[in-house]
Write a structure and sequence with these properties.
single chain; 141 residues; alpha/beta; 13% strand
Length: 141
C-alpha cells in the first residue's frame, strides 16, 4: 500500500480558445459594421408673411371645489352645491359640446364626496376628457 501523499497539481485555465473566440467576434463585428457618413440636407424653413394674431386656445372647462364644498365653474361661484346646478352650469358653458376637456381641482381639505359628485355630473353629461388637477408636494414626501 502506497500511503504517500502526492502533491496536488494546480488547475490551469487555458485562455487560448477564449481569446480566439473574442478576436473572431471582434473581427466579425468590425467587418459587418458599416461606416457610412450620413449626408447632411440643407433645410430652408418657411417664414410667416404677416403677424396675424394667434387664435385663442381651445375652450376648456374647469370645476374648482373649495374646502367648504363650494363649486366654482370657470371661476364663477355657483349659487348652491346641488348636482342639478352643476349640470346646468356645465351645459350652459359648454354649449352641449361634451368633447371639451374638463379639469376638476379641489382643495386639500375638500370632501371626497364633493369631487365624486362633480365627476358623476360630468360623466352623466357625456364628458370624456375629465382630468384631476394635482400639485407636487414641495417637500418631496
Amino acid at each position: 500500500m502506497n500511503l504517500r501523499v502526492r502533491p496536488r497539481e494546480q488547475p490551469e485555465v487555458n485562455l487560448t480558445s477564449l481569446i480566439d473566440v473574442v478576436l473572431l467576434l471582434l473581427i466579425f463585428f468590425m467587418v459587418s459594421t458599416s461606416f457610412v457618413k450620413q449626408s447632411q440636407i440643407a433645410i430652408h424653413l418657411p417664414q410667416a408673411d404677416s403677424s396675424s394674431p394667434i387664435q385663442d386656445a381651445p375652450k376648456q372647462l374647469e370645476i374648482m371645489i373649495t374646502s367648504q364644498g363650494t363649486y366654482l365653474v370657470n371661476g364663477r361661484e355657483l349659487i348652491n352645491n346641488r348636482p342639478e346646478t352643476i349640470r346646468n352650469a356645465l351645459q350652459r358653458l359648454s354649449g352641449g359640446d361634451t368633447s371639451l376637456p374638463l379639469t376638476i381641482s379641489a382643495d386639500a381639505e375638500a370632501r371626497h364626496q364633493d369631487v365624486i359628485t362633480a365627476m358623476d355630473v360630468a360623466g352623466k353629461l357625456g364628458f370624456v376628457q375629465i382630468g384631476l388637477a394635482t400639485i407636487n408636494d414641495p417637500t418631496g414626501k
